[in-house]
Specification:
- The structure is a single chain.
- The protein has 26 helices and 29 strands.
- The chain is of the alpha+beta class and 805 residues long.
- The chain folds into five domains: 162 residues, Alpha-Beta Plaits (2-Layer Sandwich), CATH 3.30.70; 121 residues, no CATH class; 64 residues, Calcium-transporting ATPase, cytoplasmic transduction domain A, CATH 2.70.150.10; 127 residues, Rossmann fold (3-Layer(aba) Sandwich), CATH 3.40.50; 114 residues, Calcium-transporting ATPase, cytoplasmic domain N.
- A seven-stranded mixed beta sheet has the order 17-29-28-27-18-25-26, with helices on both faces. A six-stranded antiparallel beta sheet has the order 9-8-10-16-11-14. A six-stranded antiparallel beta sheet has the order 19-24-23-22-21-20.
- Strand 23 and strand 24 form a beta hairpin.
- It is elongated, with a radius of gyration of 33 Å.
- It catalyses: Cd(2+)(in) + ATP + H2O = Cd(2+)(out) + ADP + phosphate + H(+).
């Protein structure tokens, strides 16, 4: 029963999806299928993602495939298989002609008619059901055979290529369309310029019309037959056929020509945007050089196991997460973290998949398999981000659903009512106005540019080292008024170090550190390790004898024949040694020699270099209150809060106490205001999940962060949070620019068309031209670079000194 209730995700690749309105219809159609809990079409990546109960996933996936082919028969649907250990992966392709009754029958039919050597592993089944299929027409891997691991690598590489690049058959389609437009244009020019009898003139314009827009009319008829009346094909067909009916032959042809030309340019602009996004995501490694007994062998990253050793040569991408066991080099980490400065890697350094090796040769011991690697998580997060839509996107989808039927009804009334009510009004004049009205009303500009804008914002954030898990979170960042930070590992580095040495009279700093370091030589406590790391003198274990640790107090040892104590203030009180308590903050180690106070050593967690500047930037952006929650002592927490400019500090908290503080803040905020919690993603999972927007700092290595957080900052810098908010605001500005621009232009031209001022020529501009301009405007968000913001966040020279708690 529990297994039947579990949800299973399926992805379908929609080759040939170039129309955002088509994407909306597919999403609505598949979303209404019984058993589908959620459905989203990513127009940019040409993918459909649906969730359904695992027990019904096979049946529903087949039904979804059949539904897509019913709604848009020209789209080639490829169901992505679920990866199965030890099995080769491939995809199956069906079109409308492959369907046999139901989706389940289609799968069976594909299995029965298979003839190629490609092995398919249960494309839509929760249990492996191996079958074969014939080569794909126009696909880059058609006709090739692969076996075993080599097949898996090639197939998955092809899958990646399909996600964001134009297919060969798409390029052929564009060339054919261009040829048709040129032919139709020449025929229209002949009809306009050459004298000819009326019948011949009509024939020439009809031929030009069929060449230029016959496919649009045919698609409209097919959609009407399937009960889908109100779409852009219907609008263009009615408008242009109506123009012929009232004798406006040139304008009927011209509208179809310019509509098709605009669609071609619009498709090119969208494809350019797709390529830009694909290039941002082009961090997937193609191969790994694995060390074997027979030497180095090049294999697919998916074949590598934990513990294997791989070699990364200069210029190659790091294929999997691992630890450097040999060699040193500089790494370009910009694809993952957004950092422009190369990072040094040497023995013992952790290296993430997606980094690019700059110069030396590195040998890594693999720590995670490819599916769990950093690069795999990033690709999955960014590619699936559009499944969580912003409210603006949802509004536009609903708006377009009711808008098109409404304008068709208005156009019908515009064609019929005025001639009946107004003296001197003719049907031909008002029908023409109604046709112009229909051309202008096409909602393509909104339906295309809005999702493109949000996806571009997510891509820009990724380029700047910020993973946003959905456009809903990107939009929510615009409404943040409260930011709550965890302390350790978020605003501080989370690593302890000696930050102050305060010797008593008669001792120097060097002497006090020498005494403390040798006294702590055999202790495994993190504080002892910090003191040993700060000591750079020569070690001499023979100096130490009679070593003992007292739990909760510290260490007692004989050093050079003297009795040395190193511990907390309670240790000195127990031994009745007089000393003033050190209240400067941090963890204080008190040292005494032969019953006399020798000084203190302060151990602190260092504040991140950009933490104070990040908080200043947040306040400049209108954040009402910045709060810090910590499990550390009140004294330490308040010191850090004062140093960084935090408005409110709550210390000595357990994880459940942090949730309570967040709920207290939630009760105080106004409606519509959002709360961000920023944590390290390890012990802050409950409060990350409770916040409106959970942000994980440096969470790539933490599965808990990926699962609980809505935003992941990959380079561990608090200064990326203001960058994320700026990207969100820039995205919102561009999206609303497009909404206001498109609606404004259309409103003006609709009025002009209704009053007979605008002609078909202006109507074409108001549709195609506005769409193209909106798409180009949406692409601007991709060019956002947050590096200039990071530069302004660097501290002044006086603040560049090491800041500590």
């Amino acid at each position: 029963m529990g297994q039947a209730a579990a949800l299973s995700k399926r992805e379908l690749t929609l080759d040939g999806l170039h129309c955002a309105n088509c994407a909306m219809k597919i999403e609505n159609g598949v979303g209404k299928l019984k058993g589908v809990s959620s459905c989203s079409v990513n127009f940019v990546n040409k993918t459909l993602t649906l969730e359904a109960e695992a027990a019904q996933a096979e049946q529903i996936a087949g039904e979804a495939l059949r539904t897509v082919n019913r709604i848009e028969p020209h789209i080639r649907v490829r169901i992505k298989p679920l990866p199965t250990a030890g099995a080769a992966l491939d995809t199956a392709t069906w079109t409308a002609s492959d369907q046999a009754g139901t989706g389940q029958n289609a799968i069976s039919a594909a299995a029965a008619s298979a003839s190629s050597s490609h092995s398919v592993n249960g494309s839509v089944s929760t249990t492996p059901a191996n079958f074969t299929h014939s080569g794909h027409t126009g696909e880059s891997h058609s006709g090739h055979t692969h076996t075993g691991a080599d097949q898996q690598h090639n197939t998955e590489h092809n899958e990646h290529e399909h996600a964001g690049h134009t297919h060969h058959h798409d390029g052929g389609h564009q060339r054919k369309l261009l040829f048709r437009l040129l032919s139709g244009g020449l025929l229209m020019a002949a009809g306009l310029l050459l004298p000819m009898p009326p019948v011949l003139e009509l024939s020439v314009f009809l031929l030009a019309y069929v060449i230029a827009g016959g496919d649009i009319v045919w698609q409209a008829l097919r959609n009407i037959a399937r009960g889908q009346v109100f779409d852009e094909y219907f609008l263009m067909s009615v408008a242009t056929i109506g123009a012929f009916a009232i004798g406006q032959y040139p304008e009927g042809v011209a509208v179809m020509l310019f509509y098709q030309l605009g669609e071609m340019f619009q498709g090119a602009a969208v494809e350019r945007s797709r390529r830009s996004i694909a290039e941002l995501m082009n961090i997937r490694p193609d191969y790994a050089n694995v060390q074997t007994a027979a030497g180095i062998r090049q294999v697919s990253p998916e074949q590598i196991r934990i513990g294997d050793r791989i070699v990364i040569r200069p210029g190659e991408k790091v294929p999997l997460d691992g630890i450097v066991v040999e060699g040193s080099s500089m790494l370009d980490t910009s694809a993952l973290t957004g950092e422009s400065v190369p990072r040094e890697a040497k023995e013992g350094s952790e290296v993430l998949a997606g980094f690019v090796n700059k110069n030396g040769v590195l040998t890594l011991e693999v720590e995670r398999i490819f599916s769990e690697s950093s690069v795999s998580k990033i690709l999955e997060l960014v590619q699936n981000a559009s499944s969580k839509k912003a409210q603006t996107e949802k509004f536009i989808t609903r708006f377009a659903r009711y808008y098109t039927p409404a304008v068709v009804m208005i156009a019908a009334l515009l064609a019929v009512v005025p001639p009946l009510l107004l003296n001197g009004a003719t049907f031909s004049d008002w029908i023409y106005r109604a046709l112009v009205f229909l051309v202008i009303s096409c909602p393509c500009a909104l339906v295309v540019s809005i999702p493109l804008g949000f996806f571009g914002g997510i891509g820009a954030a990724s380029k700047n080292g910020i993973l946003i898990k959905g456009s809903n979170y990107l939009e929510a960042l615009n409404h943040v008024k409260y930011v709550v930070f965890d302390k350790t590992g978020t605003l501080t580095k989370g690593t302890f170090a000696v930050t102050a040495i305060r010797p008593a009279a008669g001792y120097t700093e060097e002497q006090l550190l020498d005494i403390a370091a040798h006294t702590e030589l055999h202790s495994s406590h993190p504080i002892a390790e910090s003191i040993r790391n700060a000591y750079h003198g020569k070690w001499n274990e023979a100096r130490i004898s009679e070593y003992s640790e007292a739990a909760g107090y510290g260490i007692e040892a004989s050093l050079d024949g003297q009795c040395v104590l190193a511990g907390n203030y309670r240790l000195l009180q127990r031994e009745r040694i007089e000393a003033e308590p050190d209240l400067s903050g941090g963890t204080v180690v008190y040292v005494a020699v032969d019953g006399q106070f020798a000084g203190t050593i302060v151990i602190s967690d260092e504040v991140k270099h950009d933490a104070a500047a990040a908080i200043r930037q947040l306040k400049q952006k209108g954040i009402r209150r910045v709060m810090m929650l910590t499990g550390d002592t009140r004294q330490t927490g308040e010191q850090v809060g004062t140093q960084l400019g935090v408005d409110e500090v709550h210390a000595e908290l357990l994880p459940q106490d942090k949730v309570m503080q967040l709920e207290r803040l939630d009760a105080l905020r106004a409606r519509g205001e959002k709360i961000i919690f920023v944590g390290d993603g390890i012990n802050d999972t409950p409060v990350l999940a409770r916040a409106d927007i959970g942000v994980a700092m440096g969470g790539l290595g933490s599965d808990a962060a990926i699962e609980a957080a809505d935003v992941v900052i990959m380079n561990d810098e608090p200064s990326r949070l203001p960058v994320a908010i700026e990207i969100a605001r820039r995205t919102r500005r561009i999206v609303w620019q497009n909404i206001m621009f498109a609606l404004g232009i259309k409103a003006v031209f609709l009025l002009l068309g209704a009053f007979g001022i605008a002609t078909m020529w202006e109507a074409v501009f108001s549709d195609v031209g506005v769409t193209l301009l909106a798409v180009l405007n949406a692409m601007r968000v991709l060019r956002f670079d947050g590096s200039h913001m990071s530069k302004t966040m660097h501290m002044s020279p006086s603040d560049q000194k090491t800041s500590t708690i």
